[in-house]
Amino acid sequence: MNRSSQPPVPRVTRSAGARLTEPAERLDSVPGPYGKQRRKQTDSALAQDLSQMSMSGQDTLNNSSPSASAVKSSSRGGLASVARLVKLGRCKNVVVVAGAGVSTASGIPDFRTPGTGLYANLEKYNIPYPEAIFNIDYFSNDPQPFFSLAKALYPGSHHPNYIHYFIRMLHHKGLLLRVYTQNIDGLEKLCGIPDDKLVEAHGSFATAACHLCYTAYPAEEAKQAIMNDKVPICTFCAATVKPDIVFFGEDLPQKYFLNTQDFPKADLLIIMGTSLQIEPFASLVNTVRSTVPRLLLNRNAVGPFEKVPLRRADHMELGDLEETVRRFAEMLGWNDDIEELMRSQETLSLPTLISSPLSVDQTSCQSRGAPAGTETSRSRAGGQRGASSGSEETDSETDSKSSASSSQST
């Protein structure tokens, strides 16, 4: 397809700014391209189901403080309510929003937990403030702090955990519309979630490019240089090369913009292991329809779940994430299937996360002012996904269809 005929993709950069206000009510009140009138009856019925399911839990909390009521009424009762909706077949387009907390059970620290989080242990890198290590302007001036950290972050020494396989099971049951992850560890791919079901909103180590002219660079060579305390240098402009991790101030990948289709279509949003502090990712949770159930599985209440009272269709379960997800899977009757999936996946050879560079003729465009005749990191990543999307979609569809009967039985 000729890219010139497509509407331009808006430019959105990663930032740590304040969260945007919640626009969910507006999505319902204004007719749009997502068939609002056609879905209205279904949304109302879904909200009524949730309201009735939660009624008994609310009645027991009349003498509690508002804050305690908000937490307790959306705890186990909410988890069971959402599990029942899934078992009744009311949730067939599930969107998952995942943060660093998903990978802590794999031994990877999150960013903001006091004492153990990544940002609390950066003194040795001698940076002015924690987020500077992922700031593109700071990297341009001094890349060494990030490269020192990257040695510990590169994929290969960690494995997917139960939470990753729960998301994979959502796909296996034919229920996963998409998972949007902030994580750069690649564990979603390692557990077998197909590429067409995965949006790595903050990039990954799978590809590398010059941070200045965006000329593609062999990812394996970049890794070897970084692991040997060397700085990979662009062969075109002699600037520093980095893995295609999205730094603060950089454009998000084009695949991120699938959210404009996915979130209005979602009939269940599961949010897990995230502080919801990084924009624009944090505001995605506010773009589902107001009657769509949102389930927060997290250590703390975050974002719109800090409000008292909660929105009618909102539920949260606070505590250890892996334990919570395991309990949710047991309610759904999926625990045995997930454990079997984990055993079978571990017997397979793990796919490589470092991609070989594509030739120039495999990319269809150049981006962000790269020199003519050179391949850019963004276009190369898009070309790579496009080249593999046929087989990926086939795998995804086969996986989902193969479990259709088991999905109906649960």
SS strand fraction: 5-15%
Could you report the average pLDDT, rounded to the nearest whole number? 75
- Runs in which pLDDT lies below 50 for 5 or more consecutive residues are 1-9, 18-45, 50-76, 349-353, 355-398, 400-410
Note the overall shape: globular
How many β-strand stretches? 9
Quaternary structure annotation? single chain
The helix count comes to 14
Note the run of SSEs as H and E: HHHHEHHHEHEEEHEHEEEHHHH
Q: Report Rg.
A: 22 Å
Question: Structural class of the secondary elements?
Answer: alpha/beta
Strand order of the largest sheet: 3-2-1-7-8-9
Descriptive keywords:
3-stranded antiparallel sheet, alpha/beta, globular, disordered C terminus, 410 residues, 9 strands
Short structural description:
This protein is of the alpha/beta class and 410 residues long.
